[in-house]
Amino acid sequence: MKARRRVVPGIGPKRTPTVRTIRPAIRPTQPVGSAAGSRTVRPADSSSAVSTDAVGGRPVELAVDLGRGLVLANPVLAASGSMGYGVEIADAVDLARLGGLVTRGTTLKPRGGHPAPRTADVPAGLLLGIGLQNPGIEAVLERYAPTWARWTTPVIVNLCGESAGDLAEITRRLEGVAGIAGIELNLSCANGSRGAFGLDEGAAGSLVTAVRRATELPLIAKLTAAASDVRAIARAVEDAGADAISAINTMPGLALAADRSGPALGSGYGGICGPVLKPHGLRVVWEVAQVVAIPVIGIGGITVIDDVLDYLAAGASAVGVGVAALADPMLPVRLADELADACRARGVGTAGALAGTALPARPAPPSTRGAEYGR
User: Fold this and answer.
1) 201-214 and 230-240 are packed helices; what angle lies between their axes, rounded to 10 degrees?
2) Among 15, 82, 178, 353, which residue carries the largest CB count within 10 Å?
3) What element of type H or E holds 182?
4) Can you give the pLDDT of all 375 residues of the chain as single tens digits?
5) Residue 103 parent element (H or E)
6) DSSP code of 297?
7) What whole-number distance in Å separates Cα of residue 369 and Cα of residue 259?
8) Residue 123: left (phi > 0), alpha (psi -120 to 50), or beta?
9) Cα 242 from Cα 259, distance rounded (Å)
10) CA-to-CA distance for 30 and 42, rounded, in angstroms?
């Protein structure tokens, strides 16, 4: 792997957006050496990396390289929050057949979360107000890391914090712990009075820089669709050392109580998820894939194989299944099988052949120049 350049966000010449030539991250399962030349991450059971069952029995290569040695057996992950820390659903899901599992958001100290009610139905989706309830990083490592070390499925720890120092400290505690395949940084976390890290390219880049200095673990930056210029955020985190990008997190929303006396959630605002989120997620993936060279993981509203195919066509190398897995925990496993069938039906031998087919030949205007305002 080539050495990664270090760029201090906000310093240096502005870059002119260039066309991204899609180099699918879907590759054979041999682990890739880290940038430091020493770390490799064991992929999930390699028997699931090449699928030969179902239509025609022709082998299909599904493995995905997300960088710095993080290789998934297939492109379908359980997104953060959908399966807790994995042990909670281990008896209900064949975890070895997942491409990977991203844990629920974890903070430096324990957090109790928001008051009830924490969920509300909205058209074509769900509004969540959980509030990052978790036992804190030390308890997570003590309770779950020994189990993760016995699994073949890569476990990626989702981290949240209120400062770069907070997140760097959590990250240092993960370094060298067996069973941790990588880190996903939640850039929707609060950044003091300025809102979320992911709303500002300088804040996002600085956060990734701080965490990158603290670890050689594979690092995924999770973007929010609420940013006014998501392309600038994506370039900033890539320059700061992120190995991959995941997009998107939930979108902020509000639902009212049945008697309209106030918000339906105890937290007031909540995060919109479910099928209603897909157009937002697809838009961000399509925009980001045009301006970065690192892999993109598409998240938001994935419930059927057509959703997976849409995200791949928009430039994603992998996808994360979120709230739909709460109702149907085996959905990510079935979607990986259906992806192999979709490849056979199209006469291609790799899922990578389906990646980026919807991207324009030249960068399209950013969504901030929306069609409703003209060009």
Assistant:
1) 20
2) 82
3) strand 182-186
4) 333 333 333 333 333 333 333 344 544 333 333 333 334 444 444 445 776 544 456 789 999 999 999 999 999 999 999 999 999 999 999 999 999 999 999 999 999 999 999 999 999 999 999 999 999 999 999 999 999 999 999 999 999 998 999 999 999 999 999 999 999 999 987 654 456 899 999 999 999 999 999 999 999 999 999 999 999 999 999 999 999 999 999 999 999 999 999 999 999 999 999 999 999 999 999 999 999 999 999 999 999 999 999 999 999 999 999 999 999 999 999 999 999 999 999 999 999 999 999 999 998 888 887 555 454
5) none
6) E
7) 39
8) beta
9) 46
10) 9
Look up residue 291 and give its two tokens: 């301006």
Q: What is the distance between the alpha carbons of residues 317 and 340, in angstroms, rounded to a whole number?
A: 14
Q: Is 104 helix (H, G, I), strand (E, B) or coil?
A: coil
End-to-end CA separation in angstroms for the chain: 40
Nearest to 68 by CA among 97, 102, 32: 32
Spatial separation of the C-alpha atoms in residues 62 and 76, rounded to whole Å: 10
- Going by C-alpha positions, the residue among 240, 258, 247 that lies closest to residue 316 is 247
Torsion of CA 313, 317, 322, 325, to 10 degrees: 90
Roughly what angle, to the nearest 10 degrees, separates helices 305-313 and 278-289? 30
- Give the dihedral sign, CA 251/186/244/42: negative
Catalytic positions: 189
**Residue 2 near residue 33 (C-beta atoms within 8 A):** no
Determine the residue type at 144: Y
DSSP state string for 82-95 = SSTTSGGGTTTS-G
Helix (H/G/I), strand (E/B), else coil: 9: coil
Query: What pTM, to 2 d.p., does this model score?
Result: 0.86
Angle at 236 between CA 230 and CA 33, to 5 degrees: 115
CA distance 216 to 237: 16
Q: Are strands 251-253 and 270-273 parallel, antiparallel or unpaired?
A: antiparallel
Q: Which of 272, 334, 347 is nearest to 308 (CA)?
A: 334
